[in-house]
Amino acid sequence: MKVAVVIPAYEAAARLGAVIQRVLAAPVSELDRVIVVNDGSRDRTGQIVATWPRARCPIELVDRPENGGYGAAMKDGLAHAAGTDPDVVACVHADGQYSPEALPVLLSAMRARQLDLLQGSRVASGTAVSGGMPLYKIAANAALNVLENRTLGLRMTDYHSGYLLYGRRVLELVPFARLSNSFDFDLEVIASACARGLAVAESPVPTHYGDEQSHLRPIPYGLRVLRVLWRYRRGHYDPA
What we know:
The chain is an alpha/beta fold. It has a single domain, classed as Spore Coat Polysaccharide Biosynthesis Protein SpsA, Chain A (Alpha-Beta Complex), CATH 3.90.550.10. Helix content is 39%, strand content 17%. A 7-stranded mixed sheet has the order 3-2-1-4-6-5-7, with helices on both faces. Helix 2 links the parallel strand 2 (31-39) and strand 3. Helix 7 runs parallel beside helix 8. The longest helix has 18 residues, at 135-152. The radius of gyration is 17 Å and the shape is globular.
């Protein structure tokens, strides 16, 4: 099995190096490459990757000249990864919020449960509060989860975690280019996978909120989530 890790990064120089180190240190024998997408950063994000010393696998840079948003960065990262024919692509965020150390357990769960798409759930781990997730996010997640489960026909607890593992069938069948350039990209991936009858589920991951800077605006994001659900009901994500 070949595993690629995609790290979308915007103004991430302060933490990116540590995250790459943690990915490389994780006991994932199948790790084939790490792909960092520099989404138009003005700091040293791109330079950190370009000057990275020789490692256990290639550390590759996808350099976007302008900031296009989280979804735009993920599209470029997934397209780059797909060119290397991986079995699984894992998204790990550059701010360190999602633990690279959880990758071996997530990969094992994905294989054992024969999943096409696996999302790491901070809520299912029971660490949301102790890990520092703001209470307003916990409440908003709980409210939206009711709508999301009812609409998508799943039983998940944390649709808004960015810790996603993409299997081969998702990489081949989901039309990423048609999806959002913003933070609702992840939910659109889930909706597209559900519309194609792919196996989607979640597995617990630790929660960590530190002093990292979030570029997500809660109210516009919440409205985008509702739009994704409305579009799903109307067949927007069905195969063409």
